[in-house]
UniProtKB/TrEMBL annotation, chain A:
This is ATP synthase subunit a. GO terms for biological process: proton motive force-driven plasma membrane ATP synthesis. Belongs to the ATPase A chain family. SUPFAM superfamilies: F1F0 ATP synthase subunit A.
Automatic annotation (TrEMBL), chain B:
Belongs to the ATPase B chain family. The chain crosses the membrane at residues 6-26. F-type ATPases have 2 components, F(1) - the catalytic core - and F(0) - the membrane proton channel. F(1) has five subunits: alpha(3), beta(3), gamma(1), delta(1), epsilon(1). F(0) has three main subunits: a(1), b(2) and c(10-14). The alpha and beta chains form an alternating ring which encloses part of the gamma chain. F(1) is attached to F(0) by a central stalk formed by the gamma and epsilon chains, while a peripheral stalk is formed by the delta and b chains. F-type ATPases have 2 components, F(1) - the catalytic core - and F(0) - the membrane proton channel. F(1) has five subunits: alpha(3), beta(3), gamma(1), delta(1), epsilon(1). F(0) has four main subunits: a(1), b(2) and c(10-14). The alpha and beta chains form an alternating ring which encloses part of the gamma chain. F(1) is attached to F(0) by a central stalk formed by the gamma and epsilon chains, while a peripheral stalk is formed by the delta and b chains. One of its GO terms (molecular function) is proton-transporting ATP synthase activity, rotational mechanism. GO terms for cellular component: endomembrane system; plasma membrane; proton-transporting ATP synthase complex. Residues 44-82 form a coiled coil. InterPro entries: ATP_synth_B-like_membr_sf, ATP_synth_b/b'su_bac/chlpt, ATP_synth_F0_bsu_bac, ATP_synthase_B_chain. Component of the F(0) channel, it forms part of the peripheral stalk, linking F(1) to F(0). The b'-subunit is a diverged and duplicated form of b found in plants and photosynthetic bacteria. F(1)F(0) ATP synthase produces ATP from ADP in the presence of a proton or sodium gradient. F-type ATPases consist of two structural domains, F(1) containing the extramembraneous catalytic core and F(0) containing the membrane proton channel, linked together by a central stalk and a peripheral stalk. During catalysis, ATP synthesis in the catalytic domain of F(1) is coupled via a rotary mechanism of the central stalk subunits to proton translocation. Pfam families: ATP-synt_B. Its main location: membrane. It is a single-pass membrane protein. This is ATP synthase subunit b.
Amino acid sequence: MAGENQTVSEYIVHHLTNMTYGELPGGFERHDGSIISEGGAWVLARSGEEVAAMGFNAIHVDSMLWSVGLGILFCWFFRRMALKASTDVPTGWLNAVEVIVSFVDNTVRDTFHGHNKMIAPLALTIFVWVFLMNLMDLLPVDLIPYTLSLMGVEYHKIVASTDPNITMGMALGVFILMLYYSIKVKGFGFAKELSMTPFNHWLFIPVNLFMEVVGLLAKPFSLGLRLFGNMYAGEMIFILIAALFSAGLVWAIPAGLLQMAWAIFHILIITLQAFIFMVLTIVYLSMAHEDH
Amino acid sequence: MNFNLTLIGQMIAFVCFVVFCMKFVWPPLLAAMQEREKKIADGLAAADRANHDLELAKEKAVERLREAKNEAAGIVDSANKRASQIVEEAKAAATVEADRVKAAAQAEIEQETNRAREQLRGQVAALSLAGAEKVLGKAIDRQAHSELVDKLASEL
């Protein structure tokens, strides 16, 4: 908690720093004064400067752990339900799973008109996985990080979708699929679509190319950054409310109420963002399949 | 916002989970659901058909019942008619028999009357002869006056 020996801004920055394992360059002076030897070394970052110094050669251990862990949870749970599913009356959790599956299936059917066996499972994976990652946002911000800090873990973020690496990683995955299917379905037509629309004249090819490529590149960014932005902002407000608790007992009650209100509102946000990510993925892939 | 290897890691994880879902999660779930949907649809169709059949059977039953009722009413009618006919016939036969008996009785009565009359007439003739003999004091020759006596007797 904030207040004892850190300022509110330190508290916030602390909460927004991932647990980063990366390569520090040789000669870097660590927070405790030790110097990294020549040739660099892979270490767990202990401060913001170290994270910055690591650059691209680093990995967010917490994000990967939560993201892969929740992904495995999804796969395990849905696989179990898939084995349980039969033509008999569905019971218990199977009902919930079937509701989700038929919801995703309907959404895909409404939006995607091509023939591709991959779209629906892809949409289901995205929806449930993103939802689970977002769901971690509803856990009290200090619960797991503070517990882990007692065990000596300096930084820990449990909401993987507040890490742009995670959201952009998924968005880039979708982007690669978009490019793959655009070329596979349209072939040369894809190049023609990029260069000859919206102005169908050879003189306008550079203009068209510029506009279409920007439009194309905007898709993965809009996909990944929308989710990141929403979750990051939501998390930030949770952190600010948590910081309010440190302002004294008088503030604890309104802070508690605020926390509850925001958490209830956030139930909508996390579901909605997961749904939007899924729908946009389907729409983008649908556009990739449509030959004009 | 610092991009690093997490981006690549997440892309690999993404692909793995999607492939897993595509291979082991989606097909069995959807197959089971679609099969169940079909089963339910079949069941509903069968129920509809059965309902329809039931309706038809009900209509047929009502029709049968109506026919049977009509038939029964016809039978009762004809039976009634036949009964009254029999009664009429019996009545007519009885009347005829009664007439016949009455006629026979009358004939017998007439016959008896005639016989009595004849007897009476004979006795009257004998009596009047006897009377006349008494009055005249002598026997009357039966042969001579038989014509007269017979005339008298027939006038009675």
